[in-house]
What we know:
The structure holds two protein chains of two kinds.
Chain A: E1 10-12, E2 15-17, H1 25-33, H2 37-59, H3 62-79, H4 89-107, H5 114-122, H6 129-138, H7 142-147, H8 151-161, H9 167-174, H10 178-201
Antiparallel strand pairs in A: 1-2
Helix pairs in contact in A: 1-2, 2-3, 2-4, 3-4, 4-9, 5-6, 8-10, 9-10
Chain B: H1 3-12, H2 21-34, H3 36-58, E1 65-66, H4 71-82, E2 96-103, E3 110-117, E4 120-128, E5 138-142, E6 148-153, E7 156-161, H5 169-177
Antiparallel strand pairs in B: 1-2, 2-3, 3-4, 4-7, 5-6, 6-7
Amino acid sequence: MPGSAPSNPIKMLGVAMTGVMDPSTHELVEACQRGEQAAFAALFEAHKDRVYSIALRYSGNPAAAMDISQDAFLKLLSRIGEFRGEARFETWLFRVVVNSCMDYRRGLRRALPFASGVLDALGEARDSVLHRLMDHETGESVQQAIAALPPQQRIVVVLRYTEELSYEEIAAAAGCSPGTVASRLSRALKTLERRLAHLRKS
Amino acid sequence: MSNELEELLKRDLRKVEAPVELRERVESALRRAGNPITWTFATALPLAVVAVFLGVRSHESPAANASVSEPTQARAWVKSRTGLDLELADPLPPSVRLVSVRVVDPAAPSVEVTYQSGGRTGTLLVARASGVSTSRHADLRNVSADSKIAWVAHGQSYTLTTASPPSRPDDARAACLLCHAS
Lengths: 202, 182
């Protein structure tokens, strides 16, 4: 519907775009590489939801997801000239987003939720008042259990279940082999089975 | 993997729509990146003001109180006085208010952060820890049966006294939010 939020004219860097003719991603990327700002605006609109979704599911935190998404789009713009079309644009985009997720982790020591550290530190003292409090914090959301996974496992889970990528596609985005993807996913799911079973019991 | 877990993951990891603010964020960042001189100038002035403020403060008594409301302000103040890194959530959630920061012992750097949540007051004592810990919350323990919790992280020890016994979930949650955005 004209005038609704998604179809509003896009304004990016002072460029107003109306009636984007739904050009192919290939044409958009080429235009972007030529420095056409409107093309970047269109790429942004086309991919912002998937970028933000990956960032949010990876970080478990809307503020962090905004930071990661912003970083990913800045990287995308600064590196768009490196994209040669040898792989799908989406594959290249996923790799950029994965890098932003990993960079965010390195730059923010407190990125992981408090509950994760508490669960690790408490060890066997699972009946303490403190632990029950933290269970209350974590028990209501699968996202919390995912956020406690090691980053390399977490990103594999997110790409698999948020984007429904194949092992090969995840491998291309994460820069590893499909076998490594399978291994990380298997370990992650075992951990989640265990952690979510515990949360359900409590 | 159980079907139940599969369903949970599909449901809780589903795609979402990006907030409209994301576009503004990216636009703003691009403007900054495209105009580095303007950006440098824009940041230089506030930084200079902070530097002057800290410089003036540094000529006062080294063991002093600071009435602060902003985490970044508190962090800079503590860093300049003690070398400790007071990494509070920034911004703090609306439910938590920073009241003051106090250098407890300049000789053995330690600071006491006082915060309020729901009209009740709690404190966080931060000091240099012996040894190096890269864990987020190593050696977590209840110091007393009432409301005191201690742990070590990144070479600093933390002792948190919640506003009331941690049997009150709201107070414990508020205490977590002092340093953690979620």
